[in-house]
């Protein structure tokens, strides 16, 4: 064993001497063992076992009953930083309370998700806050402050931000590359992480599965070059599950697992989440990496120190537990907070005086989400649930509220007879004798009798719900979903669709005079066996006998009501979730048919969308008098919706992302260049269905008395008055946007720089002030390689949404003027282009650091205003790897022979003449990698 390096400088964490002492006394093998997610205890040093990771996205998840708040995208819709701080406080309090009764509950919480909601087709849209970096960072900062707690030294929980970096696709998520040019990197993706880290309430980050600029995030140089420069505090980097193995197994980025874990550790990964609770594989790889000289003790110590510092901040090494008290759990305050959050998350999209509803209104509640309170993959287990139907009956009276789910009622028949669902009291299920089983306890059970076919008895009537893209669920009369257990048999055994692999979804495939029923979870077909229905490679042909159409029930119910409320949307486990992106913005056809049916039967029809993501519903907007949206709102979603519909609460949620009118408004899912492809409200040039920041109220607000001041050289102060001119108290969300006038480079059409949610009584006014750092006026200057504020005029726009601007004033800001690129002196890094077109992709220059640009087909790069000097240049030199062709401007064509590999760079030189300031165009073909361009002054080159 090599000699132990000197002890690291003293710890900055509470109980830092204890951290230093532990690090000094732990053996090499003990330190390596601490690098896995599940670390063993070291009894001789009094060090307990520990694990990184406890999901807490909108409540403590997976560890039993807890308060469940709205989905993260719904919390983003509140636009309320202070509310998020209070929710974070409640979640951390419950984590501590749950920890007291179950030591499996972790205090290193993996939340929040700050990935920007760039593309609404992303399957994990529900997990992020907004498409805008300012709003996302503000809300994430507030939530992490709540999670951290307000103790002067110790942290109640230690939050880790997910997922570093530029991660917005589930399709090929572990092998796809996000090509992120410097401006997008610095102006968009990094900004969502930077502010929470700088605020001091973040314990670390989790890298994402994907690659950025050709390099897996788990070996990202940005961890060192960006993240760790934002704070003096040690930050813990926890790998995503299985990602260390992906570096070899799926990404093929390294030849051996030893090389992979060594590279990840050197890049800054401190905790390896891989192979579940079995640490032996990762520990073995790390030990062999050490033995092979790929890592040293200093690399190991740096990671161990970061882990121990987090544990110290959590109070583990304190003389007395700083949080040692009987924590209250499921309190009245937490329940009230969950309801408040659900109310604040509701967005009124349109209202032609249909809402709010009179207390005596007869309401028909219809749709697949009408009597549902859905949870998602990262939800906790709610102690109570309130569905829209529950909430409306509670608020308006059960006698005034009727209900039709709108699903088709069907029976299945095959050549052998009718499909029947056994009663759970069947003797084949001995535990089911006596009282009926709790459906929540029987999903996946194998001791229940499977479905069978009877040649004589009538088939069981099933509720068939079509969730879009041909995916459907089937439910027995007692509410249990048809599910497939590990033994392959089909049973009515699930309370709702769920699980990492959903076992409750099917598709119908036409076959002859009937259909094959394909089980989505296994990819196999439902077939009839002697002992019941099971999945197999060959399926049985079924005839679907429709007992009643869902539209018929909706039409009857709608016709007898004063107002119809259609509840439509998604199930968070189906068609858009982790591992699965959506393919369309459109509402599932069956649900679209329901609102059309309701509208035909009763013109007073409102559509309430309950979903994890936006939909394109231009027809509904045109035809219906009222539309609302809310994310799945946690345990009090139904009660909150009823209070908003009744006018007890005036809606004030605001859209945290653009709602587009059609799929054609979207770029490709893997196109991360928001500037070049004009993505999000920042750059989108079309007409959205509903703009970013949109949301209506039952009150009316005026804005006036705008005043802009410069209290100092670093700040702009914007003040204005908001008045509630309506007859009721309500919240308003004034928003401040910035727009450069006549910018020299492409800049956002509007950029959010301030927001606040305020409450105003009828007739009340409030003077609102936003203080904006002048740095917010800046952009990433690719020519200079740094942040730059360009001098010139800027519009400051105040309004109720990004499209509803009420006040504006132009301010001239002193700053840097445009300057040409000094390419003769400094050359050009290829990835610092101003514009690109064609098949251009930024890739890794080496596995450890640097960027290059690769071109397939006729990809072209544009570098503006390059200064070649008065005397000009005579040659161009290209640092290239691979094989292909580089065309530099006016006919300078360079053929690059195979260099030996993608990282084997050579410098090639060719005659090239240019002088003065001019644009430079470079075309790439054949897959060549271009890292750098330099020029020889005239008289010195080839």
Give the key terms:
942 residues; alpha+beta; TIM Barrel; Rossmann fold; Trefoil (Acidic Fibroblast Growth Factor, subunit A); 5 domains; 9-stranded antiparallel sheet; 8-stranded antiparallel sheet; 19 helices; globular; Glycoside hydrolase family 3 C-terminal domain-containing protein; Fn3-like
What does this structure look like?
- There is one protein chain.
- Helix 4 packs antiparallel against helix 12, helix 13 packs across helix 17 and helix 14 runs parallel beside helix 15 (589-601).
- The two termini are 54 Å apart.
- This protein has five domains: 16-313, TIM Barrel (Alpha-Beta Barrel); 345-406 and 551-648, Rossmann fold (3-Layer(aba) Sandwich); 416-539, Trefoil (Acidic Fibroblast Growth Factor, subunit A), CATH 2.80.10.50; 701-813, Sandwich (Immunoglobulin-like); 823-937, Galactose-binding domain-like (Jelly Rolls), CATH 2.60.120.
- With 942 residues, the protein is an alpha+beta fold.
- Helix 5 (133-148) links the parallel strand 4 (110-113) and strand 5.
- Helix content is 21%, strand content 28%.
- The protein is globular and about 95 Å long.
- Strands 41, 42, 43, 44, 45, 46, 47, 48 and 49 form a nine-stranded antiparallel β-sheet that branches. Strands 15, 16, 17, 18, 19, 22, 23 and 26 form an eight-stranded antiparallel β-sheet that branches. Strands 11-29-28-27-12-14 form a six-stranded mixed β-sheet, sandwiched between helices.
- The longest helix is centred in the N-terminal third of the chain and has 21 residues, at 81-101.
- The model is unreliable at 1-9 and 426-441 (pLDDT under 50).
- It holds the Pfam family Glyco_hydro_3_C.
- This is Glycoside hydrolase family 3 C-terminal domain-containing protein.
- Residues 732-802 form the Fibronectin type III-like domain.
- Belongs to the glycosyl hydrolase 3 family.
- Keywords: Hydrolase, Signal.
């Amino acid at each position: 064993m090599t000699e132990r390096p000197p002890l690291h400088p003293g710890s900055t964490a509470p109980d830092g001497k204890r951290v230093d002492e532990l690090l000094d006394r732990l053996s090499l093998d003990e330190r390596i063992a601490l690098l896995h997610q599940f670390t063993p205890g070291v009894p001789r040093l009094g060090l307990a076992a520990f694990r990184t990771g406890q999901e807490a996205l909108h409540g403590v998840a997976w560890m039993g009953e807890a308060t469940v708040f709205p989905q993260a995208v719904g919390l983003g819709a509140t636009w309320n930083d202070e509310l998020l701080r209070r929710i974070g406080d409640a979640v951390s309090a419950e984590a501590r309370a749950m920890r007291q009764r179950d030591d499996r509950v972790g205090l290193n919480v993996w939340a929040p998700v700050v990935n920007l909601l760039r593309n609404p087709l992303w399957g994990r849209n529900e997990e992020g806050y907004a498409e805008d970096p300012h709003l996302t960072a503000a809300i994430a900062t507030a939530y992490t402050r709540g999670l951290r707690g307000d103790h002067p030294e110790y942290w109640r929980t230690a939050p880790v931000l997910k997922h570093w970096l530029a991660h917005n696709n589930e399709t090929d998520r572990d092998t796809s590359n996000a090509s992120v040019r410097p401006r997008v990197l610095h102006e968009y993706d990094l900004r969502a992480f930077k502010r929470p880290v700088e605020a001091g309430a973040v314990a670390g980050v989790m890298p994402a599965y994907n690659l950025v600029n050709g390099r897996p995030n788990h070996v990202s140089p940005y961890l060192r070059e960006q993240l760790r420069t934002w704070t003096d505090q040690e930050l813990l980097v926890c790998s995503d599950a299985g990602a260390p193995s992906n570096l070899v197994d799926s990404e093929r980025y390294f030849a051996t697992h030893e090389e992979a874990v060594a590279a990840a550790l050197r890049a800054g990964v401190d905790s390896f989440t891989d192979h579940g609770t079995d640490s032996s594989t990762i520990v073995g790889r790390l030990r062999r990496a050490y033995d092979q000289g790929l890592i040293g003790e200093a690399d190991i110590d740096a990671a161990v120190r970061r882990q121990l510092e987090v544990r110290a901040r959590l109070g583990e090494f304190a003389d007395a537990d700083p949080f040692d008290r009987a924590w209250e759990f499921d309190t009245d305050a937490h329940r009230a907070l969950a309801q408040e959050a659900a109310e604040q998350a509701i967005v009124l999209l349109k209202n032609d005086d249909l809402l709010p509803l009179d207390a005596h209104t007869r309401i028909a509640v219809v749709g697949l989400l009408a009597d549902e309170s859905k949870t998602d993959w990262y939800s906790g287990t709610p102690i109570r649930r309130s569905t829209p139907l529950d909430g409306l009956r509670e608020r308006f009276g059960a006698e005034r509220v009727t209900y039709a789910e709108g699903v088709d009622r069907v029976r299945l028949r095959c050549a052998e007879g009718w499909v029947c669902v056994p009663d759970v009291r069947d003797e084949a299920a001995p535990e089911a004798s006596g009282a009926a089983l709790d459906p929540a306890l029987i999903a996946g059970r194998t001791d229940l009798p499977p479905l069978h076919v009877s040649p004589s008895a009538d088939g069981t009537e099933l509720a068939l719900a079509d969730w879009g893209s041909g995916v459907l669920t089937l439910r027995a009369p007692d509410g249990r979903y048809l599910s497939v257990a590990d033994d392959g048999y089909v049973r009515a055994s699930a309370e709702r669709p769920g699980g990492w692999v959903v076992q409750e979804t099917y598709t119908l495939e036409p076959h002859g005079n009937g259909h094959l029923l394909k089980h989505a979870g296994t990819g196999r077909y439902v077939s009839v066996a002697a002992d019941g229905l099971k999945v197999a490679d060959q399926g049985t042909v079924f005839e679907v006998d429709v007992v009643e159409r869902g539209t018929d029930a909706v039409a009857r119910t709608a016709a007898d009501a004063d107002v119809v409320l259609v509840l439509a949307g998604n199930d968070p486990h189906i068609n858009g979730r982790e591992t699965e992106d959506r393919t369309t913005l459109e509402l599932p056809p069956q649900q679209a048919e329901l609102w059309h049916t309701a509208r035909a039967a009763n013109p007073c029809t409102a559509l309430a969308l309950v979903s994890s993501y936006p939909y394109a519903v231009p027809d509904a907007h045109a035809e219906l008098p009222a539309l609302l949206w809310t994310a799945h709102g946690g345990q009090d979603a139904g009660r909150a919706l009823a209070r908003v519909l009744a006018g007890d609460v005036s809606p004030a949620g605001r859209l945290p992302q653009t709602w587009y009118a059609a799929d054609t408004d979207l770029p490709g899912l893997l196109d991360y260049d928001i500037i070049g492809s004009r993505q999000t409200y920042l750059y989108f040039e079309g007409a959205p269905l509903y703009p970013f920041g949109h949301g209506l109220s039952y009150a009316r607000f005026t804005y006036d008395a705008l005043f802009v001041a410069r209290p100092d050289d670093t700040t702009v102060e914007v003040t204005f008055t908001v008045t509630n001119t309506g007859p009721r108290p309500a919240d308003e969300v004034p928003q401040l946007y910035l727009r450069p006038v006549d910018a020299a480079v492409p800049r956002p059409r509007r950029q959010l720089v301030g927001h606040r949610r305020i409450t105003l009584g009828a007739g009340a006014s409030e003077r609102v002030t936003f203080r904006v750092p002048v740095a917010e006026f800046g952009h990433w200057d690719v020519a200079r390689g740094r942040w730059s504020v360009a001098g010139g005029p800027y519009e400051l726009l105040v309004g109720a949404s990004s499209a509803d601007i009420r006040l504006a004033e132009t301010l001239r800001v002193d700053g840097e003027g445009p300057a040409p690129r000094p390419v003769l002196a400094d050359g050009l890094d290829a990835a610092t282009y101003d514009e690109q077109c064609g098949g251009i992709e930024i890739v890794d220059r080496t596995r450890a650091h640097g960027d290059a640009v690769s071109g397939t087909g006729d990809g072209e790069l544009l570098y503006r205003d390059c200064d070649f000097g008065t005397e000009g240049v005579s040659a161009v030199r290209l640092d290239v790897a691979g094989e292909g062709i580089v065309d530099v401007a006016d006919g300078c064509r360079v053929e690059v022979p195979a260099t030996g590999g993608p990282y084997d760079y050579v410098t090639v030189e060719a005659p090239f003449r240019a002088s003065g300031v001019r644009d430079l165009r470079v075309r790439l073909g054949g897959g060549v990698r271009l890292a750098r361009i330099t020029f020889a002054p005239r008289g010195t080159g080839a």
